[in-house]
Amino acid sequence: MPKNTRRHTAVNIYYSYLMIYFTDQALKPKNNNKSITPTGLTMDPHQLKKTSFYKPLGQYFQPFLLSFLLLGVNGCISTPTVNDSTEISSNSPPLRLSQELKLLSISSFDVYVDHSSIHLIAAGTTASQSKKTSVHYLHSEDGGLHWAEPIQISANAATPMASRGNDIQLAVTDQKLLALWQTQGEFPGMGPIVSQYSVNGGKTWAAGSNPAVNSLGDQSHIDLVADQNGFFHVVWLEDPEENGYQSLRYAKSTQTGINWDTALTLDKSTCSCCWNTLTISPKAELNVLYRDMEPRDMALMQSQDNGNTWHSTSRVGEFNWKFEGCPHVGGALALSDNPTATLHSLAWTGAEHSQGLYYLHSDDNGKSWTAPHRLGNKAVHADIAGNASPQVMAIWDEMSAEGSGIYSAQSLNNGVTWLSTLRLSSAEKSATHPRIVATPFGFLALWTEKADNHPTELAMAFFRHPTETSP
């Protein structure tokens, strides 16, 4: 992997790594109020002192410390060491947890940040029901160091037909939570949206309604956000008129998904199997990034009136890609909560002589975009996040001689320049479809990974920044 030879004093990253696995073999909780936390953690200070970023373990829990937290399902914690080139080693002995995620193999997930809370849903099988997919909900109030006990939200709901790239979705505003996913319909690989909502912070869940007009149709590639007024906004792909191609649809709920306003058609013809990305600005402006039909470039649509009307704004990366099929690759969109309100985007293209993943940003609310800046070598599925500072984090999966791995890069000047690439996943596992979100504690990255002859795991890494300069 590329070596990071710079010491980024603006970030001063401390590298402490914590691998946490949830499994049905872990100790059972004594009550529902206990949180998931390591029961013991050891770290070799002699190895850590070999790095230029060493800090005593006692400072691990102070605010703005950078840590990597990896979640899976093997029932162990390890503390990899890092050398001066920032490569991850994972040879430390495992430790046990006191609680478990209660999912054996992960098929899909989503993460959402509301204020200081991190909310996570994951779909997968359990040890007792290896052929039925369940959806479990978790939340963390301290940036991922501790997690509340998982709650199954799909016990009385239709089984998710979720996969990476067509993931289950979650949005949260205060005590209101809404989850959406596609379920199996009349024909294989096709089916409608179902919803589950909670109005008590995720403690209990009930069935909502389908935002689509055709509740028995085929709706896929959903994305969901909540606004400052407590309203929920959703986009998806469907073809209720049976035109032979998908269209981009939108709906709004002021009742936590119990009922929906009449759905709108945003674009009558789009790429049929690429995920959509929906974001909302502090001014409640809605942005949806999707792959258009002709050309197969990423397109941006916006609404400035709470989703009542929409307009086509721009193409994000004008590659002019002519393609008759579907690449199964959407884009990424994030908004920096700073005075410039910069829109950050990642767009993948298969255009001849330009194939790859590109970063672009806009300082005029999406009307124009910077020249594409390539990330990675063979990068495909990607995500991006920005915070109130000029810092931006990008994450993607990429094929190499070692298989598919997860890589990240950061910019400290609002995407103008990018620092060296860092590999996050290990070479022993095939990793794919990463996500990253900004939190009050830094950035949180997630992905799924699988070793040969083992279940698919959910991996999580969070980044925190120190409050003082490292030696």
Characterise the protein shown here.
The protein has 471 residues and is mainly beta. The chain has one helix and 32 strands. The protein has one helix at residues 45-48, and strands spanning 16-21, 35-36, 67-72, 77-78, 105-114, 117-125, 134-140, 147-148, 151-152, 169-173, 176-182, 193-198, 206-207, 219-226, 232-238, 247-253, 264-267, 277-280, 286-291, 298-303, 311-316, 332-335, 343-349, 356-362, 373-375, 379-386, 392-400, 403-411, 422-423, 430-439, 442-450, 456-463. The strands form nine sheets. It has a four-stranded antiparallel beta sheet with strand order 5-6-7-9, with no helix packed on it. Strands 10-11-12-13 form a four-stranded antiparallel beta sheet, with no helix packed on it. A four-stranded antiparallel beta sheet has the order 14-15-16-17, with no helix packed on it. A hairpin with a 5-residue loop joins β14 and β15. The longest helix is centred in the first third of the chain and has 4 residues, at 45-48. It is globular. The model is unreliable at 1-99 and 467-471 (pLDDT under 50).
Short summary of the structure?
This protein has 471 residues and is an all-beta fold.
Number of helices: 1
Shape designation: globular
**Gap between N and C termini:** 25 Å
Low-confidence stretches: 1-99, 467-471
Strands of the widest sheet, in order across it, are 5-6-7-9
Share of β-strand residues = 35-45%
Main sheet: strands, sense, barrel: 4 strands, antiparallel
